[in-house]
Each structure stands twice: as structure tokens, then as C-alpha cells.
């Protein structure tokens, strides 16, 4: 196995005026339990490297799971030949050495070292709790545990060298509530970087099982305009679209409804969106991005005004701004693109129960399907499952209806923002109230 | 200059494999001449690994070996900004005990590492009965995928030339076209499956996958059009599939949709154009007929075998033997040959899609649907080429017979919750139908419904069956096609619009 530095040297010797070598290695364990039995155990240690090779401003990329000397030796001449075929990118570049934030607390060895049997027992207990949550819970569709230890390494020809380890834990749950012939799932996953930050099993079960219990047997309601409350989960249909729309590459190319909105008001004055890669113990917290730029906290929308987009080195150069440290590689085989870190809609001060009590004719939306907020057109369209609320009282579950609005109706129509944000996901939100949206049935 | 990618990757593989393949090298060369995968391990090594994986019992053990060489070329903002060469290779070892999977995998083909992985896989089982590993019998792939012009015999320059023509076509389509992004991807994948029942099979699959995205913009209104073409085929694919035509189609969509109005909301008749609209069947019905959901009882179709669930016009087929199609497998990732499976015939459920585990659990035959994304995964029941079969109606008549409704020309994606049966589709391009005529475009809508409601309310099926290409995700991603003729659903689909 070759060292990243040595591979980089070979690139430079082969004529690269700029190069970087990025490596990922992982150790993963996934366990799933259903009906009290271990249904699967999967264990592996995948990894590989990716090389960006620049010749006269032209780039070729190669990736491999094989980093033996022979493999690298045959790869480099091909990279050099391939780079001559691509075209000069005026904005190509790489960051130089920098000081990286330390002590981000993103590695939990203690949980890793626990025996597999303990992890299995945890899942069995979790499933038991879920099945006992309510008489209407009829079935388990499985619970799962995942742990990933990742080492990310980078060496570039400008002198950047880094290597850091991080851990990621996920608990997944899928249970079914029944009412007559009707079945409805309560399912999802919660994440943690340090396992001690994982909500306890009661909280996980409470979050997902209560959805199944409340939503089973939902039926359509009269079409028309309703007040809408998005929960932290269903608000995903908003922040997913915002994430793509706030991606600097999409904005630069025009694939975003926010493309020409920098400095303009697009949402209510209580609405802010933040990407914070330095949040202590955060799910996506990291010292450096995957090109070597130090990470940071970036305010994207502040009190309704678009303040920034997320950038990697190249897109920042095109837009004549600084990188926000948002370069991300999905794996060793991907070239850097732009991605969020810990992205969230800032919490407000309202209490969810007060907001629900204030609704005259509204829906608490628990789950959404479909586009949600479309990042290119800015229109909102989704199928929903939720609870009908009349004069502050929860009446019955709703299903088989759609929700639609323009970007303006949605974002300028934000009323209350609640205080119930939780950082168990890498994108998150508090509960949000929208004054008026159109329900179709 | 021509780059022989396969040779480049081949060298790498030889080097990494040399240490323990040395005795088999001659055989490697001979087999190579026949275009068959070199065995990563010799017969003794296979036996050792398969036995080790059964050390704590279990029904069978399996070794999956895979090697992929890929090329990707990206044309964005008028520049060929990226060329990527990829190589990945690995070995996965699985122990199956009832419905339980123990799985471990390693990069490359290292015998010591594979032995450790076999020990890890074995952990899942706990039964007193230890199975003997059967003598291997080598099987041949059926030959559903044929190659006339190997992808690696064509220079990158030629591939880039096709991309450039496509790009210029899209840019020249209209002054409103602002961006064109084209990705060319091809790969060459070698697979081998060997299991403790004595099965041993291998082959090579080429894949072409092209995605063209076009952004049109006018007075602050934006629409992103997309078209994709793909097949398991050699470069002769382009004799009958044109990148230029695909680019024109993406540009047309992006420009036509600039005039889109907000869609109406509510329940109305929906006519779906032939092709990728087949995602309707894929999501609304297909997933619910996958064997793992059936044996777990988490599909509404679990107790519907032999029962009528759809209108007489509905015959649904999953066919992994369709020549060269993107969902075709030759044999699935457990070694079961591909075949045509009729899932629903004239409205009656006639079969499910199985892997080895679900087939055995339900006492049915495997159907060749055990698929995996890569050696990083163990196989599960998945669709391949899934389509609603041809009916008798003329597509134009279906539209003319619809006084009022919505016409869905293309979908982006869809998903389904198999427990509640709720599905949804994100629509790319749709039009109103008024008095039997397609009129104004409407934008950005979501469609929702329940599979069973759609099936019973299909009242017209055209005779213009076409497959559309895509990717399907169920914990892991696999290439698929979904297809259908033009179809009308009278009730059961709600349109998420605000007009």
C-alpha cells in the first residue's frame, strides 16, 4: 500500500502542475433485528483513493480500491494522457495549507469497543419497547444499528496534509400500526457522532411509534386553504429544497430559484438558515472540507434575507467569493462537489402546543411525499399525512391529500417558529407554522 | 490517442492478484481468451471459504466477486471539465440461515482477508447441522446481453465528439436554453458467484448511461429538462439511440415548460404517456410484489396470490431477460438465471419476485430477482425490467376519449410506502387535457394515490409499450427499466396543484 505523499510525488514527477490525493477508509458494522431475532449482520472495511491530476489547467481523475505500487504506477501515465483530453478550466484551483479547528469531539471509541452482543441486546430492547408502545402497534418491520468509523486523508501539491477520524452511529426503526385493514408505518432513523448523544430508546420509540399510532386510518379532508404546521420531520420537505437552492454551484448555473436573490428578502423576518460545520459533536462536524479548506459556520438566510451560498474552491472562484469549506466527496471515487454540513432552520421561541391550540382550521403535517419545495422552480407540492386540527383540537388523521404553494406563499407566509429543534440529523428544523396553504383532495 | 482502459485496469488486477493467483495464471490467460472471468480463487480456496462461512451451521454460503472499470466524462458550462477513470474490486462472503444474512466483504481478492470475512459471515448462524460444500459445477450465462463493438475499443475522443454534438443541439434549440450538462458514463463489470450448493457462474456486463440536463429560463421562470438513455450493450447502442435526439428532447421539455401554469389540485383522470411513466407500476405495485415484503407480511399483496386486484386490462411483467435492456441481468447476483416473470395477468396476481431466501421461505421457485448494488451489499429481491404489457387501445383515442384530465408526459421519480400502499410521483412535464385535447403545460406537481386504487381504475391501456431507464433505490441502488404503454387511470390519483 502506498502512502498518499508518495502518490502525490509520482503525480508531480509525471508532470502534474497541481494534484491532490484523497483517501477514505471505513470500518462499518450494520445489525438488524426483527421479531426478536438478528436478521442480518454486515461488517466491512471498504476504502480507496481518488487522484485529481491537473495538466495545463486540464483535469483528469482516477479512483481505485487498489493502492498497491503497481496499480498506482500504471494509473499515473493514464491520468496524464487523459488530462490532455479534457479542457482548460479557468477556475480550477486548490487551497494551500491552513490552520484547522481542533477538538471538535467527533470520535467515540468507547461505543465501538462494546461487544456485538451488547449492540444486539440494545436492538432487541428497542424493538420490545416499540411493540409495547400502544395496542394498535401490530408488527415490527425491523430495527437496525449502524456504526461507521471513517478516516479521511488528503495530500495536495500546495502543501495541504490532513487526516482525521470520525464516528457515526445510526439507530433505525420501522414499526406498523393497524386499524382494521389499514396499516401505517412509523419509521425513520436518528444519528449521533458520539453514541451518548443518541436519544434513549424510549425517545426514539416515542417519536416514530406515535406517528404510526396517530396517522393510521387517515382519510381525505375537504379541499381548500388550511393553516399548516410542519414538524421537524416534515419540514424536511422545505429544507431539502433549500439545501439544493442554496448550493453555490446550482445558484451559479441558475438551477436554483434563489439564484439571483442574494441580499434580497425571500422569507419572513423570523426565518434564518444556517450551515455550521463546527457545531460541537454535530453529525456532519468536520475540521476541513474534502479539498482542504478549513470548515466554518455560514449564515445562508438571515432574518429572511439571502446572505450567502455554500461554495467549494472552484465555484467560489467563479462567483468571486471565498469558499465556505463546503467541498464534499461522497466517497473516494467522487470528485469534490458542494454539500451542506449541519444545516438547520434556526429555532424560534414558540411552543408547539400553543401553536396547535391557536389553529382555527389547520393540519399538523407529520409526513410528506413527492417534491416538497422544488429547488429550481421554487414551487411547493407534496402528498401529506397529518392530523386535522379544528379550533385548537386534534380531530382525526388525514391521508390522501396534497399540499401546494408558491415559494412566496410558503416562505413569506411563515408564522410561528417553535423552540423544538433537535440535532439528531444532519439537516434539521424546529416546527414551523405556515399561515395558509392549499390542500387538494 | 486511444486509451485501452481495460488493459490498464487489467494490469492493475493482475498485479494485485498475482501473489496468490500464481498457480492459476495460465488458466487465467486461457479463460480470458474466451472472455470469461478469471477465478479469483482456486477450487480448494473456494471450498475453504465456503466451509468456513458454514462453521456455525446455516443453509448455504456464497462468495460474490466483482470487478468494475468505469469511465465518466462530464461536459458542463461548455467545458469538458472532468474525465474519470474508476476501478473497484472486491469480494463479499455471505452465510444464509433461514431468512438471516451474515455478510462481510473486503476490497480486492485477498485470500487471508476473505477467510476472516467468512468467519464474520458465519457468526449469524447457530444451528447444529453443518452442511457439506458441494463440488462446483460451472454454469454458463444465458446470453441476453450481446456486444458487437466493445466500449473500450472506442476512443474517449469519439465519445466526447458525440457529447459535443448533443450539447450544441441543445444550445441551438432555443435562445432560452441557458445551461446544458451532459454526463457520459460507461463501465465494464465482471461478476462471479459461487455457493456451497455447487453453483458457479460468471460473466461480464457492459453498461452505458447518459444523462442530459438542460436549463431554460425566461423572465425569471426556470425549468430543468432531463433525458436519459442507457443499456447493457456495446457501442453499437448509438446506432439506434442518439445522444443528439436525447439532447433535443431535454431542450424541448425545458423550453415548452416555461409556459407552464400552476397545476389544478384534486382528483381527476390521469393519462400517462408510454415509457418511463411505467414508474407508476413500479412504485404503485411492483415493490409490493417483492418477495421479502411478502414473506414478512409488510405488503398489502402478501395474501393476494390468485386474487383479482386489478382491472382486466392489467398484465404486469418483470423480465430480466429482455435483450440488452438496462434492467437485464443475465443471471442475478446469487447466480439464478434471468427470466420473464408474469406478476399480474389480466388483473390476477400470478407471482412474486424472489431471491433465494424469499423463494425458500414461501416454498416457491427463485425468479432471478436477487440483486445487489455492488460487493458492498448482500442481495435482496429487486425489480429488473418491469412493465405493464400492451393493451389494444390506440394512444390517440385514449386522449380523445378524455373530456377533462391531466396528461403526464414525464416523471422525475416516485416512491412508495409498501405498508400503507401510498405512492407518490414527482412530475417533470404535464399538460391539461380539455375536451379530448392536450392543451396548456402545468408545472411542478406531485401525484399521490394508493396502488390498489390505481390498479382497479385503469380503464384504457394503449398498444405502444416502451421501456424507460432509471435507477431504483431500496437501501441500495440498481439499474432498472420501467415501462408501459399509454395508460388512463380514471380515479385514484390526486394531483397536488394550487390552481
Characterise the protein shown here.
- The complex is a heterodimer of chains A (441) and B (499).
- By secondary structure, chain A is of the alpha+beta class.
- Chain A has two domains: 106 residues, PmbA/TldD fold, CATH 3.30.2290.10; 224 residues, no CATH class.
- Chain A has ten helices and 20 strands.
- In chain A, strands 1, 2, 3, 4, 5, 6 and 7 form a seven-stranded antiparallel sheet that branches. Chain A has a five-stranded mixed beta barrel with strand order 8-15-16-17-20. In chain A, strands 11-10-9-14-19 form a five-stranded mixed sheet, with helices on one face.
- In chain A, strand 1 and strand 2 form a beta hairpin.
- In chain A, helix 4 runs parallel beside helix 5.
- Chain A is globular, with a radius of gyration of 24 Å.
- Chain A starts with a helix and ends with a strand.
- The model of chain A has no long low-confidence stretch (mean pLDDT 96).
- With 499 residues, chain B is α+β, with helices and mostly antiparallel strands.
- Chain B folds into two domains: 205 residues, 2-Layer Sandwich (PmbA/TldD fold), CATH 3.30.2290.10; 231 residues, no CATH class.
- Chain B is built from twelve helices and 25 strands.
- In chain B, the strands form four sheets. In chain B, strands 8, 9, 10, 17, 18, 19, 20, 21, 24 and 25 form a ten-stranded mixed sheet that branches. In chain B, strands 1, 2, 3, 4, 5, 6 and 7 form a seven-stranded mixed sheet that branches. Chain B has a six-stranded mixed sheet with strand order 13-12-11-16-23-22.
- In chain B, strand 12 and strand 13 form a beta hairpin.
- In chain B, helix 3 packs parallel to helix 4.
- Chain B is globular, with a radius of gyration of 24 Å.
- The N terminus of chain B is likely disordered.
- Strand 4 of chain A pairs parallel with strand 2 of chain B.
> Can you tell me the number of structural domains of chain A?
2
The coarse silhouette of chain B is globular
The rough form of chain A would be described as globular
Total beta strand runs of chain A: 20
Give unreliable regions of chain B as ranges: 1-36
Overall structural domain count of chain B? 2
Counted by DSSP, the helix tally of chain B is 12
Give helix % range of chain A. 10-25%
Q: Identify low-pLDDT runs of chain A.
A: none
Strand content of chain B: 35-45%
Could you state the oligomeric state of the chains shown?
heterodimer
Largest sheet of chain A, if any?
A: 7 strands, antiparallel
Mean pLDDT of chain A: 96
The helix-strand sequence of chain A is HEEEEHHHEEEHEHHEEEHEEEHEEEHEEE
Mean pLDDT of chain B: 90
User: How would a crystallographer describe the biggest sheet of chain B?
Assistant: 10 strands, mixed
Secondary-structure-derived class of chain B: alpha+beta
What gap, in angstroms, lies between the N and C termini of chain B?
A: 56 Å
- How many runs of DSSP E, i.e. beta strands of chain B? 25
Number of helices of chain A: 10
